[in-house]
Amino acid sequence: MTLKLILSFVIGFVAASLIGIWLVPYLRRIKAGQRILEDGPKWHMSKSGTPTMGGIMFIAALLIVCLTVGFSSMLNGYYGHIFCFLFALVFGAIGFLDDYEKLKKKQNLGLRAWQKFLLQLAAALVFIYLMRAFGYVTNNLYIPFWNVTYPIPEVLYTVIAAFAIVGTVNAVNLTDGIDGLAAGTSFPVCIFFVIVTFLWQSADISVGIFASGLAGGLLGFLLYNFNPAKIFMGDTGSLFLGGAIAAMAFAYDMPLILIPVGIMFIIETLSDIIQVGYFKITHGKRIFKMAPFHHHLEMGGWFGKKWKEKEIFCLFVSITTVFCILAFIGVFHRY
After folding, report:
1. H helices of the chain, where?
2. Which three-class secondary structure state does DSSP give residue 142?
3. Residue that wins the pLDDT comparison between 134 and 296
4. Domains in the chain: boundaries
5. How is residue 33 annotated by DSSP?
6. Contact at 8 Å (CB) between 321 and 215?
7. pTM to 2 decimals?
8. Once rounded to an integer, what is the mean pLDDT over residues 280-307?
9. How confident is the model over 257-272, as a mean pLDDT?
């Protein structure tokens, strides 16, 4: 088991790194550049034209891991990594359509919100059905830290699960606003699931292979995406990444673990919701300098310090790592 998990990480890292050598200049050559919103931080305008859709880098790397290291799992009848990959890939495809529309129209507007929501909701429902059919998901809601499980009605569970998945996907997408932030914040989450797999010591390590391969792919991607970024992951990457994180939580039948491990994604989402709601209620007043929260820090919100992108990256990754450790403590006695 240990060897497979390490090999998944190494192959994911090397594959993403090598793919990036070709992908970055190729996307530049076809002028697949990101257009920056004019109402964002003014210094972001210098990023205009940076290639987008870089998520292809870690998506392709993860596919290689699933089909190589994960091949023996498929022979033994375990398909958790394939389900997780295909599910995340559906979201990645939705993101790709969004990125393509933006590039085609030469503006930062892609698919409409209702179109993305319906596509994401449909994907979530299909995934929950498949995971239940193959025994990965039950109607029992596991409560971390208390180590108890409560059965809930199937319909209610399906509704909660579908909206939790869609919420996670879009929360990760919101976090992808500065160099390396979404990838860096997701990295410790993937490592958490790798450690859970190692602790579990089950015959089915397919989801652990998926998590380890994704962690390696993200690290390889960060070679190009860390500030100053040579490439952005785009909605292709951020929606795939959100789908992958949600998929791993449900594959281990503990969706509530998304709360601690995804704490920074939740903060980003809440800051956006609060900002919009407060703006409408007060007819133009704002709580944050700009939402989501990372832009508030960039613009010197509250205390006047204008955080640099690398500082925000370190802050988000550090807090996520601490909460992943707490999450590990919360599920330790389950295994």
Report:
1. 2-29, 56-68, 71-75, 80-105, 113-133, 154-175, 181-200, 206-225, 234-251, 258-261, 263-281, 293-298, 309-331
2. strand
3. 296
4. 2-261
5. B
6. no
7. 0.92
8. 87
9. 96
